[in-house]
Specification:
Elements: H1 12-24, H2 34-43, H3 50-67, H4 73-87, H5 99-120, H6 125-141, E1 148-149, E2 153-154, H7 157-169, H8 179-188, H9 201-214, H10 219-227, H11 229-236, H12 242-263, H13 270-282
Antiparallel strand pairs: 1-2
Length: about 280
């Protein structure tokens, strides 16, 4: 299958009708050209139509890849390369444009493929390393951090890429020595100054961070980052107008409070909790 070929791709309306029929049980996957459907779903993964994008394409990718396991590993590998080489950086650097939907929902598709690899081990070390490098570059370069977009539905780029990082961290091909390289770009994305995170981005970002802790990341790495927050904000303050500075403070406090609650049940993270308490008291 060549996802970039000029073979048949359904238009959005026809794809919406087809996927609606599959979701409702009027049609089954075996009754249609599955390759054509997957190609069309990839083509329209960032549709402005939230029903098509979220309720149909993403939901049915989940069904195909996770629930029913209908896609062969060779096709999943090709889909992954299409994500990394053509979709993930589409319009990267844009702010408040519709290109974010393509990027954000591509990271969800990457997460599904990684989930399957965690179950079946079909991706090579080189392919997993490529995913890691691309996700790190993506989160560093993503400028559009909107959650819910009025009239167009969820973008949620940071929450979605956090899901992909979570599956990446669970992959046996990722050595724990690489955790700091993954941690820092995820951590830094919480300290934005242009807007306030409103849609549980902090909790979603904490999931891969805590997964790393549970898999051997040293608590001291997190404590060091927390201990450096006050100085980080002090250095930023002269560079920012007052409104942006307080947006930064708000994002910081929300993130730290969520982190505190997430680890509050585990005594092995007492030292991190102490660092968070100190930091919050100083802000």
């Amino acid at each position: 299958m060549n996802l970039q070929s000029d073979k048949t791709v359904l238009c959005e309306n026809d794809l919406k009708v087809l996927l609606s029929e599959i979701k409702s049980g009027q049609k089954a996957w075996e009754d249609i050209d599955l390759v054509m459907a997957v190609r069309s779903m990839c083509t329209h993964i960032g549709s402005k139509d939230s029903v098509l994008r979220d309720k149909l394409i993403y939901t049915l990718f989940f069904q195909l890849i996770i629930e029913d396991n209908l896609l062969e590993s060779d096709l999943l590998k090709e889909m992954l390369q299409n994500c990394l080489n053509h979709l993930l950086f589409y319009g990267i650097g844009d702010k408040e444009t519709d290109t974010v939907f393509t990027r954000a929902f591509t990271t969800l598709l990457i997460a599904l493929i990684l989930f399957r690899d965690n179950e079946e081990d079909f991706l090579s070390q080189m392919e997993v390393d490529q995913v890691r490098d691309h996700l790190i570059r993506y989160i560093n370069e993503e400028k559009d951090v909107r959650g819910y977009v009025p009239e167009k539905g969820w973008a949620h780029s940071i929450a979605h890429v956090a899901d992909a990082f979570d599956e990446l961290i669970k992959n046996p091909k990722i050595n724990r020595d690489l955790y700091p390289e993954i941690l820092h770009p995820i951590w830094n994305k919480m300290f934005v100054t242009d807007s306030v995170y409103l849609h549980d981005e902090d909790e979603r970002v904490l999931t891969p961070i805590i997964e790393m802790l549970n898999r051997g990341l040293e608590s001291s790495k997190i404590e060091s980052l927390v201990d450096g927050i006050k100085l980080k904000l002090e250095r930023k303050k002269p560079e920012l107008d007052e409104e942006k500075y307080w947006l930064l403070v708000s994002n910081t406090k929300t993130f730290l409070k969520s982190f505190y609650i997430k680890i509050n049940h585990s005594s092995k993270y007492d030292s991190i909790r102490v660092s968070i308490e100190k930091c919050l008291g100083a802000l």
